[in-house]
Design brief:
Elements lengths: L46 H9 L2 E6 L2 E6 H15 L5 H13 L13 H14 L5
Antiparallel strand pairs: 1-2
Helix pairs in contact: 2-4
Length: 136
């Protein structure tokens, strides 16, 4: 088979040739446009990110006669306070130190006690009274 090159036979320059490793111009990567527009997949989360995600999940608790859905981190705080108030006295001082160091002492603003419901507020009040020897 012979190739005919001439004015009427669609002669192409080396630049316009199509074939192996030479896709048509319309199908080549465009300048300034990524070949992977969504980018590389994100890394798997580290421990802190996984923990943060898990602590925001909710769990159903029985509070009094009602069932309540609360974030896991809140359930942990409620249990910590309950154990400190009702449990052995040896838990009280470390709990108060933990609260002071991580919850209240870590921020420059006052804690927003309006976020607590009546039962939680009463538990906190009993805890503080117990720690200060009923001098509140």
């Amino acid at each position: 088979m012979t190739k005919i090159h001439g004015p009427g036979h669609g002669a192409r320059s080396d630049k316009d040739r199509v074939g192996y490793k030479r896709p048509p111009k319309a199908h080549q990567f465009q300048k300034g446009i990524s070949g992977n527009p969504r980018g590389r997949k994100k890394r798997t989360s580290d421990f802190a990110a996984i923990l943060q995600g898990e602590l925001t999940e909710t769990v159903d608790l029985k509070v009094g006669d009602k069932r309540k859905s609360v974030p896991i981190v809140k359930a942990l705080v409620m249990r910590l306070l309950r154990e400190a108030v009702l449990g052995p006295r040896t838990l009280l001082i470390p709990t108060l130190q933990f609260i002071e160091r991580h919850a209240i002492g870590a921020s420059d603003c006052e804690p927003d006690l309006s976020l607590l419901d009546d039962e939680e507020f009463d538990a906190l009040e009993r805890l503080l009274k117990k720690a200060h020897g009923n001098n509140l």
